Amino acid sequence: MTKGGDSMALRQLLGDITALLGDRNTHKTLTESFTVLGMPPADEGSKRERVEHSFAQVPDSDLHRLAERFLQTQSVDALTRNQLQDALWVEATPPEIPMRARRELARAIDPTVLVRHAARFIAMLERFWVLDDDPLAAWSFSPSTRSLRARVERHVIRNPDWSAEDLFEALGAFEAGDARFARFLEAAVAADVLLDETAQRQLTDTMNEHLRTAAIELRETGTDGGYPRFALVPTQLAHTRRPKNVIFASPTKPDIRFRSAVDNDIELVGSDALVYDRTVTDDGIRWRDLQSWWQETQQIANDTEAKNTLYARLRSSLPSNSPGQRNLFDCYHRILKTEVYDMPALLPEVWLHWDPKTVKERGAQALLRFRMDFLLLLPHGQRVVLEVDGSQHYTRDHGRTPDTSKYAEMMAGDRNLKLRGYEVYRFGHDELRDESAAHSVLERFLPELLRRYGVIN
Asked: What value does the mean pLDDT take over residues 387-393?
């Protein structure tokens, strides 16, 4: 989750925000608020003391979850909301959007395209910026004429004399965090704001001319009510082809033959490997997709039976001499709990390369890595590899002698994967050997990973 200075900053922010709970609640409703927010109970003292005592018991690992629940369940002003969102969104390490790309993008936009549907446009702005910023508005019975909202309505909608660059400047978009700016662009080209596919595509094309200079782009990733949906992604993902014939759950080399070489249709002969041959959508392969495929191919009528037998089948493919891999697989599902159904499926023992010849037969042309411990096929074509490294990865003689050539080969394989669009995360086997230690490591790592790739917020 959060670390070091980040956790200290988030704790300070949440401490200031949760302090308001004492003013908003009676003693009875304060107890209910603790439960809703997932804060530890605190029954003694004044309301302020109860809040302080409860918050002090929240571990750093739960700060992110507390911030999310506060946003979901509590009424906060726009400035506080933005502070919490920025603290949460930065964890996803969004792509960097340089100042030059932001300004040149803004200069290229025709503001009249943005505001075709004024009420929808203003509602979109409200989700990201502080529009009601006039400190004197509370003392007046009439709407503020000095707030950012009033100025946007006057200069962009009623009497349009602002450029898009002027608008972005007034909003604070140029100085905003990368995650907020990215979400703002995605929302600006969304169907519920523009209500016109042609306008969506024209605006997206205009933005992309400048975003691509920073190796990012707004890419069509699906549909929303029949309109295209766009997400900001690194441009290298555009070159990642959709997976086909994902071969997994087998630690031994499968015997493959082409059923149709023209169509690249394959079949396995005398092998217990699994082949996911459905179209991989922009959502990647989620557990729900994998379970549906398994249920259909195995002709299982009961959902629970399909879930349990699939889990058992995948787990049985893990090598018996690697408790670390088993602990990673078990903890992934235990930590995500029921949410795992809509999360990326953790595919074990995935075959990356397949060659009918052996490494000895192929010689120097042999590919560096045949199989991955685990693969996650994430939304927008993102691919993540998880590896659990035992001593065999960097020693010989059963772990007695360091082997620099093995280590160099492993690093070369990682570089090759990254150049092909995969991100590799390695765990030392000792980190995961013990189930309790593995759970502690992965409880911090998995939410960070899923936020990093935009699976969760």
From this structure: 73
